[in-house]
Write a structure and sequence with these properties.
39% helix, elongated, Alpha-Beta Plaits, 4-stranded antiparallel β-sheet, alpha+beta, 10 helices, 16 strands, Multidrug efflux transporter AcrB TolC docking domain, DN and DC subdomains, 3 domains
Length: 344
């Protein structure tokens, strides 16, 4: 330090240029810094989610959770292993020691889950293994509301709003909450089904088998080759009534003989309200490593254009915005920088 002070006293021009160089580099770097609400850290936690539709809480615990715990518990470096069982769902939370690399630990969990799935019911959905990440939290939440039924609002959110928001720079996912997606429901009369002595699984298999587009192979003619497709997908909902479920004594039993098809919606698994009115919520998540403020500003620009594309009675409102907290924090940082410079 004494030598540095001596050089600065004897060569004031050199000292001034050195300080100005640091100032210029710092100023240039300041405007290129990524801005986020929380620091980017790798939490030493891995979650495993397994679903078995229709299973009770006790079945999920004994048939799924215990089997997974027995395998995952053999992984090195586990600090805590917890499981939460519910109706048709089980979630395992694995916390590792801080000295364990989370990427390697997550891969070890995937390997153990793959082994454990051999001993659980075959009807389970593919397990989802994921790391706890701050990037998974939504950076902005948009509400779509209006004087329309929930199904129509869901169609607007799914077909118009979401594709446009997904094209915005830095957006990784747009998740719809509280909506009612369109679905063709087939309602079966249990008395008629029992009279024909047909199991309900035959109805399901008939719909899956006869409502599908299948590849038809290739046709070669000289130097030309043409691909064939079997167009079996049903377009009109009423056509589902013509599907043949079974054949009894040479007479086909169709869907309309045991029930009817309805152009309806899927079962509602989530709900959202804005000012007491049913609303469709869209949670927007950014891509990993993207600037949160830049992503939010891009989404707001898209929303301004989308308001011209949706019907006039439909409203798009931002109900949660992380950039407000980030701008407030940046204001405080700038204020303290100025005060620190003055006091220094």
């Amino acid at each position: 330090m004494q030598k540095l002070a001596e050089v600065c006293i004897k060569r004031p021009v050199f000292a001034t240029m050195l300080v100005m160089a640091f100032v210029v580099v710092g100023a240039a770097s300041w405007f290129r810094l990524g801005v986020d609400r929380f620091p980017s850290v790798d939490l030493p936690t891995v979650s495993v989610r397994v679903e078995l539709p229709g299973a009770s809480t006790e079945e999920m615990e004994t048939l799924v959770a215990q089997k997974l715990e027995e395998q995952i518990n053999t992984i090195q470096g586990i600090q805590e292993l917890r499981s939460i069982s519910g109706t048709g769902t089980v979630v395992l939370i694995v916390t590792f020691n801080l000295n364990r690399q989370i990427d390697v630990a997550a891969q070890d969990v995937r390997d153990k889950v793959a082994i454990a799935t051999r001993n659980v019911p075959r009807e389970i959905l593919p397990p989802v293994v994921s790391k706890f990440d701050n990037d998974q939290a939504p950076v902005v939440t948009v509400a779509l509301s209006g004087e329309r039924d929930l199904r129509e609002l869901t169609e607007l959110a799914d077909k118009i709003v979401r594709p446009q928001l997904e094209r915005s720079a830095g957006v990784g996912e747009v998740r719809i909450i509280g909506g009612l997606l369109r679905a063709i429901n087939i309602w079966v009369d249990p008395d008629r089904l029992a009279a024909y002595q047909i199991p309900i699984t035959s109805v399901r298999d008939a719909v899956v088998r006869q409502n599908a587009d299948l590849p038809g192979g290739n046709v070669t003619s000289g130097l030309n080759e043409t691909s064939l497709r079997t167009m079996g997908r049903i377009v009109e909902p009423k056509a589902f009534g013509d599907l043949v479920v079974a054949t009894l004594n040479g007479v086909p039993v169709r869907v309309r003989d045991i029930g009817y098809a309805e152009d309806g919606t899927k079962e509602q698994r989530s709900a959202a309200r804005l000012d007491g009115v049913p609303t469709v919520i869209m949670e927007i998540r950014r891509q990993s490593g993207e600037n949160t403020v830049a992503v939010i500003e891009g989404v707001k620009t898209r929303l301004a254009a989308l308001r011209q594309q949706v019907p006039p009675d439909v409203k798009l409102a931002v109900i949660r915005d992380q950039s407000r907290y980030i701008y407030a924090a940046l204001h405080e940082i700038n204020l303290h920088l100025v005060l620190g410079s003055i006091l220094a």
